Amino acid sequence: MEPIPRKHWIGTPLCLRGWQRNIESKKRKYNGAREIFVGLQNYISLVNDAIFLNSLKVTLVLNLFINPIQIAMALLLALLLNSNTLSIRVFRTLIMIPIGISLAIASVIWGFALNPHAGLVNSMLSLFGIPHQPFLTSSTQALWCVILIATWKGLAYWMVIFLAGLQEIPEQLYEAAIIDGANSWQCFWGITLPLLKRVLLFVLVADTTANFLLFVPIFVLTRGGPQMSTNVLMHESYSRAFVYSDMNSALTIVTVILVILLSIIGIQFKLLKASE
Amino acid sequence: MFSRRVKGVIRKAPLYGVLTLFTLFSLLPLIWAFSSSFKPTERAMADVTSFSLKAFLPVPFTLRAYSALFKAGFGRSIWVTFIVSLSTMALGIIVCSLAGFAFAKIHFPFKNALFILVLISFLIPFEAIAIPLYLVAERLGILNTLYALVLPGIANGLVIFLFRQFFMGIPNELLEAAFVDGASWIKIYSKIVMPLSKPALVSGSLFLFVFQWEAFMWPLIAVHERDLRVIQVALAYLRTQYFVAWDQVFAGVVISAIVPLVLIFPLQSYYIRAITLTGLKE
Fold first, then answer.
1. B148 with B166, same domain?
2. Is residue A68 predicted with pLDDT exceeding 90?
3. Among A45, A102, A105, A201, which residue has the fewest nearby CB atoms (within 10 Å)?
4. How far apart (Å, rounded) are the C-alpha atoms in residues B219 and B207?
5. Residue B257: inside a domain, yes or no?
6. What CATH number has the domain bearing residue B206?
7. Do B214 and A103 touch (CB under 8 A)?
8. Same domain for B267 and B170
9. What is the mean pLDDT of chain B?
C-alpha cells in the first residue's frame, strides 16, 4: 500500500496554514468583491424563489410521511421483539443488521434493487403479477423510494431505542393489570404507552431532525430529480454551495432549515407535555 | 402436553410470520448484494431479470470483481478510511473521556451551559453544520487534507455524554481517598477512573470508529482529490462511473459493509448501549 502523500497529512503545520489563508483571503477581499451586510435581502429573495419553495414543499411532504411511518413501524417491531426466548433473540439479531450498514451503502444497494429494467424489486413484484414500476425514475414514486431506503436503514435503529425503553417497564405492572382482567390492547394503551412517553418524545425529536436533514440517498441516487421531486432543502443548499458556488444562498437555506427544525421540535415538546 | 405445544405454535404463527417478513426485508437486499459481488455481471443480471432464487446464491463463484476493484485503486480508499477512522477513534477517546470526566467530577464555571451545548451537538445531525464547517475549514486552510476529515469528528457529543454517565457512577469517596494521598486530577483520571471504565471505553471507541467509517456528507465536501476519497464517497462515485459493472460496485459494498459489521457483531451490547443511552437518560 502506497503511503498517503505528505502534503495531505502534515503539510504546513495547522496554525501556519490558517495564518497563510487569512492573508490570502484578505488580499482577495481588496482585489475583488467584498462581502457587505445586506440585512434580510438573502431571505427576501428566497421567498420569491420557486426552486426553494418547491424544495421546502418536498421536505415537508417527506417528513409528514416518513416520521410517522418509521416511528409506528419501529414501535410495532419493538413490541413484537420484546421477549427473551431464543427464537425472538435470533429474529432480533437478524433484523438489527442494517444498523451496521451506512446510509450511503444502503442507497447504492437499493439503487440497483430498484432499477426499473433489471432490478430485484421489479422481478420479485412480477412473481405476484405486478407490472414493472419506474421507481426512482418517476417523479411520483422517487420520493417514496427515498422513504423506503431511509426506513430500511433507520427502522432497526429506532427499534433498539424503543426496546430498551420497553425493557425498563416493570413486569409486575402487566401482571397486576392482567389479574384485573385487562387484555393486551388495554395494557398497551394503559401501561406501555404512558411509561414510554419520554422515549417516544426522544425518538420523535431525533427522527425528525435526522429526516429533516436527509441528504445521502438523494445525493447518491436522484440528485434531487426527477423534475425536482426529491429536491429536499438539504440537497438544494448543497447544490447552491458546491454546484452553483452561491455560498450565501446556501447558508441562508441552512439557517431556514434549522429554524423550521427548532420550531417543529418545540411544537412536539408542547404537544407531548400537554397530553400528560 | 403435545396439544398445548401445538396450540402455542399456532397462536404464535402470526407473530413469526410478521417477524419473518421484517427479516426478509432487512436481509434480502444484503444477501443479494453479497452474492452478486461474487459472480460475473451478466450472470448477476440474468438471475434477476428472469428471477430465480439463484439471485441470492454466489454461483458461479469468482473473485474477478474484487481484483478489478483493487486494480482500479479502491485499496487506497480503504486505507484512507482506516487511517481517518482509527485516528479519530484514538484522539476522540482522549478528548471525550477527559471532557466527560470534567462534566462528571469537577466543578467549574458555566458547567451546565457547556453541558447543554454538548447535548445539543448530538441532537443535531452533522449534516446541519457541514456547509458552515466547510467555510471554517477553508479559513483554516485544511480542505483537502486528512486534518479536515479527522478534526471535526474528534469531539463527539454522544461519546462525551457516554463517558460522563459512566463516570457519574464511580463513587466520589474513591477519588477523595486518592486526593488525600496527594494524587493530581490527571493521575486520578489515568490511574483510577480510566482503568475502571472499560465498558465505556469499548462503547465509545466503537461508536467513534463506526461514525467516521460511515460518514458521507462531510468527506464529500471537505475533500476533492481522488487520493483522499473515503470508501463511502468512492462507492457513490463508482456507482455513477460503472453503472454497468454491477459486480464491482457490489464488491465495494461488501468490503465497506463488512468492517463495521465484524466490529459491531461481537460487541453488539456495547454498541447498543451507546445508541440507547441517549433515549433513556435525562
1. yes
2. yes
3. A45
4. 18
5. yes
6. 1.10.3720.10
7. yes
8. yes
9. 86
B255 has pLDDT over 80? yes
Query: Is B124 a member of any domain?
Result: yes
Q: Could you tell me if B87 and B121 lie in one domain?
A: yes
Buried-exposed string B120-158: b where 16+ CB fall within 10 A, e elsewhere: ebbebbbbbbbbebbeebeebbbbbbbbbbbbbbbebbb
Assign B15 a pLDDT band (cuts: 50, 70, 90): confident
Q: What is the per-residue pLDDT across B166-197, written as a single tens digit (0 to 9) for each?
A: 899 888 888 888 888 888 888 888 888 888 88
Which among A14, A103, A157 has the least Cβ separation from residue B216? Answer: A103
* Sign (positive or negative) of CA dihedral B27, B32, B35, B36: negative
User: How far apart are the C-alpha atoms of A209 and A204, rounded to whole Å?
Assistant: 9
Q: For residues B219 and B260, state if they share a domain.
A: yes
Nearest Cα residue to B225 out of B214, B217, B234: B234
Mutation target for A interface from B18, B28, B276: give the one with most A CBs within 10 A. Answer: B276
Q: Tell me if chain A has a CB within 8 Å of the CB of B62.
A: no
Residue of chain B minimizing CA distance to A169: B280
Lookup result for grid cell 464529500:
B220
Q: Say how many domains are in chain B.
A: 2
From A48's Cα to the closest Cα of chain B, the distance in A is 23
Tens-place pLDDT, residues B102-146? 999 888 999 999 988 888 887 788 888 888 899 888 888 888 888
- 154-183 in chain A: CB under 8 A from chain B: 155-157, 160-161, 163-165, 168
- Same domain, residue pair B76 and B54: no
Q: Are residues B11 and B116 in the same domain?
A: no
| Residue of B22, B79, B210 lying closest to A1 (CB–CB) | B79
C-alpha cell at B249: 460496485
A252 vs B281, residue with greater confidence = A252
Could you give all domains of chain A from N- to C-terminal order, each with its CATH number? 43-99+153-274 (1.10.3720.10)
Taking contacts as CB-CB distances below 8 angstroms, the residues of chain A near B235 are 104-105, 108
The number of CA neighbours under 13 Å toward the Cβ of A163 is 25
Nearest to A250 by CA among B42, B196, B134: B134
Distance CA A3, CA B112 (A): 44
Same domain, B113 and B140: yes
On whether any CB of chain A is under 8 Å from the CB of B216, the answer is: yes
Grid coordinates of B44: 448477476
With beta carbons under 8 A apart, name residues in chain B contacting A241: 131, 134, 221
- Check CB contact of B237 with chain A, cutoff 8 Å: no
Residues B88 and B200 in one domain: yes
Look at residue B79 and tell me if it is in a domain. Answer: yes
Q: Looking at the complex, does the CB of residue B44 fall below 8 Å from at least one CB of chain A?
A: no
**Whole-angstrom Cα distance, residue B120 to residue A261?**
13
Could you tell me the residue range of the domain that residue B178 belongs to?
Answer: 72-280
The count of C-alpha atoms lying within 13 angstroms of the C-alpha of B132, restricted to the half-sphere facing its C-beta, is 10
CB-based burial label for A97 (10 Å; 0-12, 13-18, 19+) = middle
Output the pLDDT for position A65. Answer: 94
How far are the Cα atoms of A88, B35, B45 from residue A117, in angstroms, in the given order? 37, 20, 10
Q: Is residue B67 part of a domain?
A: no
